[in-house]
Amino acid sequence: MNLRNGQISVREILQNPQARGLIQREVPQLAGMLNSPMAVAWQGMTLNAVAAQAQRFMPAGRVQYLIQCLQNL
Q1: Tell me: the pLDDT tens digits for 2-43?
Q2: Domain count of the fold of the chain
Q3: d(CA 65, CA 68)
Q4: Could you write out the DSSP letters of every residue in 10-71?
Q5: Angle of helix 17-26 relative to helix 60-71, nearest 10 degrees?
Q6: What domain range includes position 50?
Q7: Helices 47-54 and 60-71, packing angle to 10 deg
Q8: Measuring CA to CA, which residue among 31, 20, 30 is closest to residue 54?
Q9: DSSP at 4
Q10: pLDDT band at 61 (very low <50, low <70, confident <90, very high)
């Protein structure tokens, strides 16, 4: 998947069924939030912005692993 150097939006990532499945599988605590009305607020964020925030809640290595998995789709 072309992540456009991290400038791809979360919305664009989630439109890809494989990417959505990967996120649901690898980050199950987010699965319920993907269809939440609150999701609209962060779906416009870039992958880089979300990755920076995610490092507050999970190890940086885990974030990089997920980004690599997305690139491999």
Answers
A1: 999 999 999 999 999 999 999 999 988 887 777 788 788 888
A2: 1
A3: 5
A4: HHHHHTSHHHHHHHHHH-HHHHTTTTSTTHHHHHTSBHHHHHHHHTTTS-HHHHHHHHHHHH
A5: 160
A6: 4-71
A7: 150
A8: 30
A9: G
A10: very high
Q: What would the mean pLDDT of 52-61 be, rounded to a whole number?
A: 90
Cα gap 69→1, rounded to integer Å: 9
DSSP state of 72: T
Q: How far apart are the first and last CA of the chain?
A: 5
Distances from the Cα of 12 to the Cα of 20, 44, 57, 59, 63, angstroms: 10, 9, 23, 24, 18
Which positions ≥6 away from 39 have C-beta within 8 Å?
33
Q: Got the DSSP string for 28-42?
A: HHHHTTTTSTTHHHH
